[in-house]
């Protein structure tokens, strides 16, 4: 029998294995206890289990009046048995405005559309080779906390940057290089500065990764710098949540918006 309940600390080992089986890895995934705790503390994180083991998980965090879906994953061998629908009911029942960065999986998109979400714009995952150089003079360490820029997961490996006069970003340095977790960069010049800083952080043997909405004003600058699209998501939202983030000025986190 399928049951859905709130995550517990004792679930972490099984949850990490489930996340890996669903192709999710790294710090921004259910393999990381800090990430799971951040979602659960800010909103709700639930797991689905059958009589034997965990088969799926979902998370939701509030963004103002919007219920933002951070995760929805079901073990491939358990798909088609109602686990996804049960998880969505657990985190979205009783909400009116909803949003998520959805995969392009037709089954997932169908589920979100049935919950009243509309596919609005693509979210492009970009990669570009690292480049050993100093940060641009216009990029400096910031006194702001990661949460000030919309990143609530605590970590000692984060860099919070001021970019130009008004822009800012949260970066993480990891085994692959550097990843922009979330940023507020309005125009092409700020995005170009951020990308240069990310490439410098990644170094000669790494790659810089970032996610850019298709409508962002700096997308052309990123592509001109040699970035390539390696994956895509779709921003989906109910009509009242479509404008939660300005895709021309924000590099949203797929996990937290």
Task: Produce a short descriptive summary.
With 257 residues, the protein is an alpha+beta fold. It folds into 2 domains: 3-95, Aminopeptidase, CATH 3.40.630; 124-233 and 246-251.
Description of the structure:
- The protein has 257 residues and is of the alpha+beta class.
- It folds into two domains: 3-95, 3-Layer(aba) Sandwich (Aminopeptidase), CATH 3.40.630.30; 124-233 and 246-251.
- Helices cover 23% and strands 35% of the residues.
- The protein has six helices and 13 strands.
- Strands 1, 2, 3, 4, 5, 6, 7, 8, 9, 10, 11, 12 and 13 form a 13-stranded mixed sheet that branches.
- A hairpin with a 2-residue loop joins strand 9 (167-174) and strand 10 (177-184).
- The chain is globular.
- It starts with a strand and ends in a 6-residue tail after the last strand.
- The mean pLDDT is 92.
Features:
Aminopeptidase, 257 residues, 23% helix, 35% strand, alpha+beta, 2 domains
